[in-house]
Amino acid sequence: MIPITVIGKRPAPAVAGDALLGLFLENRRALVGAAARIVGSRDQAEDVVQDAFLRLRGMTDEPSIRCRLSYLFQVVRNLAIDTYRRQTLERKWMAPEDEGINAPSPATSPDIIVMDRQALCALAGALSELPERTQRAFEMCRLQGMTQKEIASALGVSPTLVNFMVRDACIHCRARLTRQQAI
Question: If you write DSSP's letter for every residue of 16-61 in order, what string do you get?
Fold first, then answer.
């Protein structure tokens, strides 16, 4: 027996009597349009509407939903906003793959290794010029990651003094590095 296809008729909902899915299928084009306005692409909007359909397919017909059409648009809108936020975050933190192809590795160049070692030697020399307590405060803060309160109690000084010691050590080291680079 050959199945007869009726043109212009929508298929019946997957579950007989499921008014929500039937309404979804009837308004699919408008739902895609609403999602496209948010995500900016018709293809992505199709994906959003498909996700909404899959979520709604598992639901039973909920009598507590008063305005089913508004509910459908809200579900699609929420999913579209989630998709838009995810895309924005990905664009912010992810670079296209082509951007990294020709990027040199910072550790491969011998001249960069020499420059880094010279900078470390200059920093070690700069720190040795500072008072011992200032050196310890700087090392505890920058190398060990201790808070100012922890450093203050370890050194027996106030947190304000720790702040000034770390600041002075940073200024001194930065000045030493600037002199080193000028040479």
Answer: TT-HHHHHHHHTHHHHHHHHHHHHS-HHHHHHHHHHHHHHHHTS--
